[in-house]
Write a structure and sequence with these properties.
Elements: E1 14-20, H1 23-33, H2 37-40, H3 42-46, H4 57-81, E2 94-99, E3 109-121, E4 128-138, E5 144-155, H5 157-160
Antiparallel strand pairs: 1-3, 2-5, 3-4, 4-5
Length: 162
């Protein structure tokens, strides 16, 4: 189980985990980072286009990130336990096409995935490559609530001498 650039399988869907969005959590995140009325109270949300309290899109993508980083930590721990080298990765040169096509409401259970779509070796840094992945969150009804393409620098096996 390696995360080196050469080992990344394009098109493979990787399950990152799930999260249930509770009302208190939605409001707490909104108070701190996105204090719009429809994220702060059910009453205000009823008067909005959403009709009910819903999570900030930034909250949703933050939970996706928490799951993605947790997966990286688990894999690195497994590699260390097996005495295998762990490749370097990050930072991200960016994201594109970030959308929140369906609101996340109270008690929605969102399942998060990532799927590598393209990869290329960097001419300016031949020991590294860039992998672009399709990242998504889907609710319990199978509706997409989060979708974006994200890129990540990933170390090549040749650079590590592995």
């Amino acid at each position: 189980m390696s995360l080196f650039f050469e080992d990344i399988e394009l098109g493979r869907v990787i399950e990152l985990g799930g999260h249930r969005f509770g009302a208190e959590e939605i409001v707490a995140f909104a108070r701190e980072f996105d204090p719009q009325p429809f994220h702060l109270s059910e009453e205000a949300a009823r008067e909005s286009l959403f009709g009910h309290l819903c999570a900030s899109g930034w909250h949703t993508v933050s939970i996706w990130m928490r799951h993605a980083v947790a997966r990286e930590h688990r894999i690195r721990a497994e590699l260390a336990a097996a005495g295998e080298p762990a490749p370097g990765f990050g930072p991200s040169p960016g994201v594109r096409e970030l959308t929140w096509p369906t609101p996340v409401y109270v008690d929605d259970e969102i399942s998060f995935t990532t799927s590598p779509q393209t990869k290329r070796v960097l001419a300016s840094r031949p020991g590294w490559g860039v992998v672009e992945s399709l990242n998504e969150g889907v609710n319990q009804e199978g509706r997409t609530v989060l979708r974006f393409f994200g890129s990540l620098f990933v170390e090549r096996r040749a650079r590590a001498g592995a």
